[in-house]
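User: quick one, fold this
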Amino acid sequence: MIPAKRFLVAGGAGFIGSHLVRRLLREASTEEITVIDNFSTGDPANLAEVKDDPRITVLTVDITEPLHHHAKYDWVLHLAAIANPTDYEKSPLETLHVNSRGNEQLIRLAARAEARYAFFSSSEVYGYYRQIPRGGLREDTMSHLVLNQARSPNPVGKCFGEEITKYLADRYGVPYVIIRPFNVYGPDMDIKTNYGRVIPNFIRWALSAESLKVQGDGRQIRTFCHIDDFIEALMIVLQHPAPPTVLNIGSPIPTPVLTLAKLVNRLTGNTAGIEFVEKYPYETFSRIPDIRRIRSLGWRPGSNWKKASAKPSTGSKAAPLRLPGPGHQNILPA
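Assistant:
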């Protein structure tokens, strides 16, 4: 049971945020959760099953505007983000601001609340790698950012957010942790996303009997971590007295995107095949995390063959696709 009792979750109506909120409410020790979200990408439906729980308060708040909360919390968690290429290519300034202004506002709030602070960064901060270092990307691996591209605001914003977290949290004496998720998937994902959330796109196309669009030749290597596994890693971090300041969380098992596409077509019986489309410039060929730090806290990606719904949040009543998961060995057979 985690000792923390009061949480403020920015972006709590989003994919990861809503799963974390629901998981925290399963803890008898949780007394209060305040969710703040501007609902630009978050969906109130993600919290529908817990909206009547008296311990949760949901507020429509833009964290880039002045925050006037003065309650006490044990943790302030910054999961607010414009996290998919479709949106952050259209809204570059907003993407940058949520990691700069928004991050600064939340750190100051955490200082007032005498809380610990968690900034959710991204595996995108590692930038463009043609070949991954042996053993995967460590938390101290050098970043190879590509600037002045349509998708640059997200990784640049996350890198800047990490720097603000380190220096401003230290200035205010706020204990902090920076989380770098690697391709987390599961129910309630936003189907507008592209790589990093390729699974719901593949599922949507397959259930609509459309061909699966694969960028380039599909040899790009990704790893996929089920949301249930990811959330359990977070629970370990939240109850740890002094977690490392930067943590990769994800699966270390590599999966070619083309292999994933073939698996989805096979599991759905989709006969429309695969369509190869133009590869996005500067897309990293391989992104695999070194997860020794989070393993040292006692976390292991799941390895059972429990079935997990990975339906996209389309608003439709289509039957959910059942994919192997959670657990890194459940995405694809070895």
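User: anything notable?
Assistant: Residues 303-334 have pLDDT under 50 and may be disordered.
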